[in-house]
Write a structure and sequence with these properties.
Number of strands: 10
CATH architecture: Alpha-Beta Complex
Largest sheet: 8 strands, mixed
Helix content: 25-40%
Order of helices and strands: EEEHEHEHEHEEEHHEH
Low-confidence stretches: none
CATH class: Alpha Beta
Strand content: 15-25%
Shape: globular
Distance between the termini: 39 Å
Length: 194
């Protein structure tokens, strides 16, 4: 089984309000972000204590919520909380960010396909402008993910894996993080076909 882990316990400091519940094309940002994980067997959403607005935004979706009681520590605590909550039959996890509403299910499928092809511990997408999210980690990486500390993601784990971390080329720009109202406004603009 391959699970999704959506990180949604941040503080939205730069946004000035709960960015995950801000509306984008009529739906909450986090609901769009969930769509990128739709190809997976199950999805776990790491939330802050009392994140009722987030749970409401994801109502009627088949997700499991994991409350990160240590969220003040930063992103590493959310990764640890999510990994610790995964059942023993999860062979790999795809970690995605709750504030990337334009993530693509096709990218997730490509990560899973590459992992199933074998001989790698992790798979990361390589966009036109660099490596980004979501990232797939096999179970062999879980101890390293559980050892993360501070306000850091899993980049260090990927670096330690070296060639055991495969890349999947994505012919598109990296999805935008909705960190500010201005970033959300850019995503609200009508898309133009080239």
């Amino acid at each position: 089984m391959i699970a999704g882990l959506l990180l949604a316990a941040g503080r939205s400091r730069r946004f000035g309000a709960d960015k995950l519940c801000a509306k984008l094309d009529g739906k909450a940002v986090i609901r769009w972000s969930m769509a990128a994980l739709s190809p997976l067997d199950s999805v776990y959403v790491v939330i802050a204590p009392g994140a009722d607005a987030v749970t409401q935004a994801l109502s009627r979706l088949d997700v499991r919520f994991v409350v990160n009681l240590g969220r003040d520590e930063g992103m590493a605590s959310s990764i640890r909380a999510g990994i610790a909550a995964l059942p023993a039959d999860v062979a790999a996890v795809v970690i995605a960010l709750g504030d990337q509403p334009r993530g693509s299910p096709a990218v997730t499928r490509a990560l899973v396909d590459r992992w199933h092809a074998g001989d790698v511990a992790a798979v990361v997408p390589s966009y036109l402008d660099g490596r980004g999210h979501p990232v797939l980690f096999g179970r062999a990486c879980f101890p390293a993910l559980l050892a993360l500390r501070g306000d850091v993601g899993a980049r260090g784990v990927l670096e330690e894996l070296g060639e055991r971390a495969a890349t999947v080329e994505v012919p598109a720009a990296m999805p935008v993080d909705v960190d500010t109202p201005e970033a959300l406004a850019v995503l609200q603009e009508p898309r133009r076909d080239s």
